[in-house]
Structures are given as C-alpha cells and as structure tokens.
Amino acid sequence: MNFLAKIKEIIIDFGAVVYPDYCPSCISYLEKNEDFICTKCKVKLPKTGSHLPDADNKAIIQRFEGRIKLAHTLSYLYFKKGSNVQTLLHKLKYASQPLIGEKLGLWYGTELYEQGFKDVFDIIVPVPLHALRQKKRGYNQSEAFGKGLAQGLDIPQITHAFVRTQYTDTQTKKQRMERADNVENIFQIEDANALKNKHILLVDDVVTTGATLFECVLSLEKAQPKSISIATIAVAG
Ligand SMILES: [Zn+2]
To answer: Residue 100 Cα, ligand 1 centroid: separation in angstroms?
Structure first.
C-alpha cells in the first residue's frame, strides 16, 4: 500500500467509526442492499464450518487435546496473514471498530442457531481484558463478538462474573501452556453463582497458541459449570 492509499484508509477508518458507509475490509463504498461488509468481501470470508456435523475441527481441537475438556470447539473463520480476516480483526482490535465483532458474532450466532445450537449453551462469557486495557481501548473486542453471538443464539452474555487481574499478555508466555501454575493470578471468578451448573460458551477474537483460552478454562472450571465450550471469530493456521 502506498502512502496516499494509507492516508485514505486512515481517514476512512476514522469516518467508519462515526458513519460506517464503507466496507471495513476493502474500504469500498457500500451499496444500499449491503450490510456492513460488502458482498464481495462477505462471500470471500473463509469459513471453517467447524459447527457442521462433518466438520474437520483438527486445527482448533489439537491445541487443547489432552489438556482440558471442552464440549464444543467452534471457530467462524480461518485466519491468514494478509487476508481480509486479518484486516477485519486488526480493525476490531486497534481501530475503534467494535461493530466488526458484533456483526461477525451475529452472523455466526445465527448460523449456529440454525444448525441446532439453539439450546446447547446457557450463557456466553467473553475472555476478559484487564480493566486498564479495556479503559484504554474503550471496549473489549471479545465482548463485542459475544454481544452479536448472544443475539444470534438468543442467550445472555455475562461480563461481570469472570475478570482478568493481570495486565500482561499471555500470548507471549507460551510456556504457561505446559506449566499452568499461577493461573489464578491472571483470571479470577467474581461471581461463581452466575457460572455454576451452566453450559458456558467462552468467546475470544482469535485463537493462535490457545494459551489464553486454556488459562480461562482452567479458571472457569473452579466455578463448577456443567460444561465449557469455545467459540472464536478466527483460528490461525
Ligand atoms: Zn469489501
């Protein structure tokens, strides 16, 4: 991308926050019948189909196999560097566009609902951000995805019961995946009653190493839920 194109993108991104008339993926003007993402980009979304009966879930499942018990491991899209999914996720996280998460969540939640996941989960719990990071960003991108998913699946999202107490990024501490010792120092249960005996759907934006989700699941298990499942917008590799 040359300098002028970059400037144009920055201006459009800024405009999209106030008046989202441009596709956040390819920055082309949206037609009247297009909803948030242009038709071209929408059909190009690389869906994993991990919720379908004949799904090949290996890429997602192998991150957690033998380590934690999950009822369902779901991922909406494949994450590839340089793809439109990378663009969307980057803007969701760093360009003040939580609506990207909400829209993708709603589309995925609707697909899941139609595929028989209507009564599978009781509540949605987003991977929490540290309060300081959330204040800085203005929102939690996983919660934005969870909001749309909750709407599509017609179940509530619970955000107060499970919090993050450590500021540091777990993605840089892959070795924790093996040790998982001081898990309680990173995440904490604030309201166990809201989680107990529930089928929890834990949601995050993207699963790479799986370390963050792994630690969340270990923490959530302490509240004795009936089951824990995972849903992410995208899965890497
Ligand atoms: Zn587009």
So the answer is: 12
